[in-house]
Amino acid sequence: MFRACVAIVLFLFVKTANAIQVPKGLGTCPSLTACLSLLDKVVPERDDGEGSNGDVLARDLRRFGEPAKQELLRRAVGSKPGWRNVAGAILADWGSWNEGDIQALRDALRKDKGGWVARPLGQIGTPDAIRALVEDLSTAADIESQTGFALEKLGPKAIPFLIPLLKDQEKSLLAAQVIAEMDPLPTAYASTWVVTALDAEVPLEARMAALRGIAALGPAAEHTSEALHVLLKDNDPELQKQVGATLRAVRDPIVVVQMAQSCQPKAPQFDFLALDSDLCLREIAEFGPAGQAAGESLMSFLTSANGAEQAYGILTLGFIDYDPALPKIEAALDSTDWRVVYAAIWATGWLGASDAAVKLDKLAGNYWLVELRGDAARVAAALRSPQGRMKRGSWDIMDHGIRRDPTWVITDGVRGRQQSCPRNLWEWQGEKFKMLPSPDVEAHALDFGNGNMWGDLVGTDHGEWSGELTWVPKQGVPVVLIRDNVHGMDYDNDGAIVLFGLAHLGFNYGYALKVSRNADGSWTQKDIARLPGEPQSWTRLKLDRIAVLTAGRVVVFSSKEGVLGVASCAQK
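User: That's the sequence. What structure does it adopt?
Assistant: Structure tokens below.
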């Protein structure tokens, strides 16, 4: 989930650059000087990183041969940032290189770190060319550059030159990321690295480099990792720590129990994200069935007071194929929290819980969230198939350029299309109503003047900066009850019903609490409805019913019965 949010942030804040312009007449200009004069008029002053049309420009200038290449190399180290980038983009598609060009390309890469001239160096691919690329990588913040791309494409040829970076603790991550992106992975090095890591006569930095290299190969190197178990008891704490990290990276089951023991539920009841649990459970879930040994230690998640933690735990236990959790997971299909139900649907499918098929049929037929009805139908069909279970693929997948795993629905919510209702006239069990527009305010308040409640309940909404629900007594000190954005509130006997939520970047959630003041002055918060997204507007109905517009639909709930269903658009 965190990776998905980062991707969205980058998308929002990175401005798309314009393609390099191809001036009219470039394909017919009579001389190199004339062609460069045409380009001078369109090359931007700044380096915008854009390389589109580099192949077209290279095609039109390549007819001038070596002089054109040398002039472009000269401009690639010139004083104009825009020309350095454009020259590099053209040279990236030039296609005619030899060892004699390495120094000029190295000089250009030093001027434009991670720039387009890294590609020609990768195409040359000699030791000196690879050294130039590794030199550039060693000063980078990440591998998202042409240098990283070139080294990835070189594959195993680049490995010996990346070893010095693997020896350096600060720079090893760069080398490891390059290795991890190679396709195919250079798994032939795994056995050699195991021998190096085990050799006590080898310098420590070389052993550490070998362990980092194995870790970069990930699960593809798991078959060689058993020999490393002995290093878990090594006398050198630094080596011991690295072998633990390596065994986790390759998904060796020997470390998963220790990981699970340090991964326990601890989120407050109304923390919608429960980030710490999400992160550690995700790491365990990535083991798949190889992580079964962690199951017993993770059972405490099934009784967490935090619904997000429950859902994360159910998904993880199902994905690692931990059968003893099945009775509690099947019981979770009856939860009033749709997030828990969602997790239980998929977990029963992965576990092959054929006895759950009847419950899933019921959910598929009448559950209030149509998205979960579809999930339940798919899982029920899989349980009745010859395979008897849902196919378990990789824990995370790429979806529209964003890496997602099964937990993303819990934090991202359900983003349904707005249900069409032209007259804004809705119906629930014979009662017709209109959704009142949500007031555009940052604060809501209810005044209380009875019993032990003398003061104001105040809710604020500050968007991504978060709001809070506060009790402000007529006398005494204000007390913050919940730190979250308040979208609305209404009286409810001995307290209030309060709507919370946020839709921002990758997050989208909403919920309703019953907030009551006790005789001793303390407060009780009861979770009465988990919504599929941020509340947008709401209306009070008869018989203790509240209708709220969220995730493209109108959800009806009550303080006593929770979510009741989804209203329909009234025909008349």
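The chain has three domains: 12-238, 257-412, 425-569.
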